[in-house]
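To whoever picks this up:

The nightly regression suite flagged HDIG domain-containing protein as changed. Nothing in the input moved, so I suspect the structure step. Input below, exactly as stored in the fixture:
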Amino acid sequence: MFFSRWGQTIREYLDDARFRENSRIRLIIYLALGVVMFAILVGSILPPRYHFTIGQTSPVTIRSPITTVDSAATQAAKEAAEQKVPKQYEQSTQVETDAVNQVDTFFATAAQVVSSKSMPTSQKLDTLSSSAPKGVSQSTLQALLTESPAQINTLQKDADRIVNDLLGAPFYQESMQQAGLLVDRQLLDNFDLDKASRLIVQNVVVSVLKPNMVYQAAATQRAKQQAAATVPDVMIHQGDLIVSKYGIITASVLSRLQDVGVYAQHPNFGVAIGFAAFIALSIGLLAAYVERRSPRRRLDNLMLSILGLVFVLMSILIVLTKWVANTAGTTSVAYVLPISLGAMLITVMMDSSLAVVASFYFSFLLGASLSFNYDFVFYGFVASLVGAYSVAKVTSRGTFMRAGFFVSLMNVGAVITLHLLQTNRSEDFHSFSLHIGLAALNGIIAAILAMGVLPFFETAFGLLTPIRLLELSNPNNPLLRQVLMEAPGTYHHSLIVGNLAEAAAEIVGADPLLCRVGAYYHDVGKTKRPAFFVENQMTKENPHDKIAPSLSHLIITSHVSDGLEMQKKAGLPKPIQDICATHHGTTILWYFFNKAKELDKNGTVKVDDFRYPGPKPKTRECAILMICDAVEAAVRSMARPTPNRVEGVIRKIIRDRLQDGQLDECDLTLQDLDVMIGAFMKTLKGVYHSRIEYPDIDKLRKEVAK
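Regenerated output under the current build:
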């Protein structure tokens, strides 16, 4: 009981004009929508942040949210390529020249020393030793003193030849370790010398040999850089496994986490600020569109709140999809997200043009949550647009299922299109077929959810959707059955008014279904006292003839308040109640005013005392019902309803309503009123058409019997 009373209080507040039209509340709704959407979606937009240490066990499976370069693996590959680059050397001819000069100087000195007759042996050794290359042994010097000048000259030529042969070709530092063997091989292969001579030449040549290949550090570094530059980057692709659940965090894992941007001690505030700006801009543009809509399609605060709830609902579904995608390690699950649900709900509860605008937002939010993937932006936009247009005209709940199948078909087309647009179709057939299957399932899920969620909005906010209207139009509704059983004339009158109102609404762009169903319920209050209304009087006896005109006025006008009370008790939506409250506006009961005036001897009767309490119609649907109710009653009371007379009566009724100011608060134009007359005439021809006069059957039978 407490919750029922509490819910009724909230419903009354939401229906109150002070809530529906308050500009401050409107601003609060926009701000609250932005804050709530940011709070819900920011976690799915921001990449997850982990702070691990080497050796720690990962509590979750982590996959790469983006495609990027694996810096550690790439660096290792570059270093390996650099290691394969040989050192760069340049051959120096100066080394060979210097070596030959040393050999020539040494042997020339030896020849002079040996030729001298006056120089003692010790001085000869000292002189020869001073000119000898570093490394020439004492035994070589002594052996050389025993040779003749001619032999020394021969040894010089042989040594020069060996030096030229060895240093004329690349001679590396590593070759120095085998210098003795190289010289021996030259002596044995190319020279015919005795053992003593070979030892002298070998010792001298080995002493002057030096590497002639000079290391080029700069050239080596350039070669390494060129080799490293040719190594392709090692990539981490979106969806690649970084570390599995319970896996060990190694240095390479830590590096990969840093590369994909999920390793940090603090969240990425730059992305958060950017997304906040994205939400603010989106809500601002949405508000600009909503506020600039024509007055006929303007959303009051209640409908704006419902629009916000749909955005929140879709944000929650997007976040759940992102969570499932992260858990499963693949974004394929996003293809089954019923992204068209939001557009379907907005179309049914509001209109398709607003749903088209909302489709942009839903698709961009989906793409943003999935690493700003354009494929999902396109996919979500196609699904949302198709969903919006598929339920533009709801005639039954089966419309949702047909829309679901159509959405599924277009989703499959979108997936195939995106697959064909890929220049590098790396996904295998299994993934492609999975995407098609999930896309086909998408529309069916959206339709089922739309049918399940819509009654919640209808009940919680008293919304009057096409589905709800179709349910209310069922003749088995308790209120309609009550009218049929207790006031059959009123029931028939309501049916005809419904036909007139539906035809007029279609031609002026109002809601035909609301007009028809509103007409069915507009006179339910007459069931309180059905005999006081002429359409329910089966005899010529009129109870109003026995009571005062003021009392008749009270009884007649009370059917409006009685009807409102019955509708509220039955839980009928506010638009239906508004039609009931305004279908007479503040018009005057001229019949009873005239009757009271005839009985009044003091002249105290005022015309305003015989008005309906109102209020006046504020919507096109309410105004159409007012006119249709008066037209049906007037035409029904005509003795000979010819087309010209009927049209004249209709124009007079409309003119009277205009002159009395009954249509001042609604947005029906004079052009609308004029085209409505044609719709009335067409409908009334089918109801009050002329009939032939049938002969008296009994009289004819008697004449035939004679």
